[in-house]
Amino acid sequence: MKKIAKLIPGFMVRRCPKSGKIIKLRFDNIYAKITFPLIGVMAIIWFLVRVVPKPNRIAYPCQQVAAGIGSTFLIWLFGSIGSLAIYDQIRKRINKPVALVYLSGLMLIISIGFGIAQIAQPDFVPNIAPPEGVNNPMGDAKGIFPGRVAWTQDFNATSWDGKTGMWWVIKS
């Protein structure tokens, strides 16, 4: 993973000067402004090319990642276009500074509303922990060394001599 992280160019990320770890993504240059939307469009195209011909591919982990990246890009795109349209309508009716204050207040109210909704419903995310606990074995351990895996060998389980035919062929 460290080798992959080092392949990310410096114009896309900001790194810690001591450890070299990625601190944050950079959006302050033209390359990043082009790269991130391009990745979103490519994720959507890849998702559609792979999933439309065979819909059960949507369960693949790589397609789930592509769906997440692509949907995030679409939400960002529609949110940007929608907020520009709302800003333009407000700016036409009232002057620019008042429009900025109005939109800032509206965004603050929406953010507070989402925060209150998260606090009011703490069980919004279901508990997905297993009932026996995380990293705990299931069942009762038995034997002289309980909890260890035991391998057994039964030569009478098959009649294959190891030389003729294949072990999975059933002789009648």
Word description of this protein:
It is a single chain. By secondary structure, the protein is mainly alpha-helical. It contains four helices and two strands; from the N terminus they run αββααα. Strands 1-2 form a two-stranded antiparallel sheet. β1 and β2 (22-25) form a beta hairpin. The protein is elongated, with a radius of gyration of 28 Å. The protein starts with a helix and ends in a 52-residue tail after the last helix. The model has no long low-confidence stretch (mean pLDDT 77).
Features of the shown structure:
single chain; about 170 residues; mainly alpha
Produce the secondary structure layout.
Layout: H1 2-7, E1 13-15, E2 22-25, H2 30-51, H3 61-93, H4 96-120
Antiparallel strand pairs: 1-2
Helix pairs in contact: 2-3, 3-4
Would you summarize the structure shown here?
With 172 residues, the chain is mainly alpha-helical.
| Number of distinct beta strands | 2
**Tally of DSSP helical segments:** 4
Q: What's the N-to-C terminus distance? A: 53 Å
Question: Share of helix among residues?
Answer: 40-55%
As a percent range, the share of strand residues is: under 5%
Rough shape?
elongated
- Average pLDDT across residues? 77
* Spatial extent as radius of gyration: 28 Å
Q: What is the helix/strand order?
A: HEEHHH
Low-confidence stretches: none
The side-by-side strand order for the widest beta sheet comes to: 1-2
- Given the helix and strand composition, which structural class is it? mainly alpha
Q: Let me know the largest β-sheet.
A: 2 strands, antiparallel
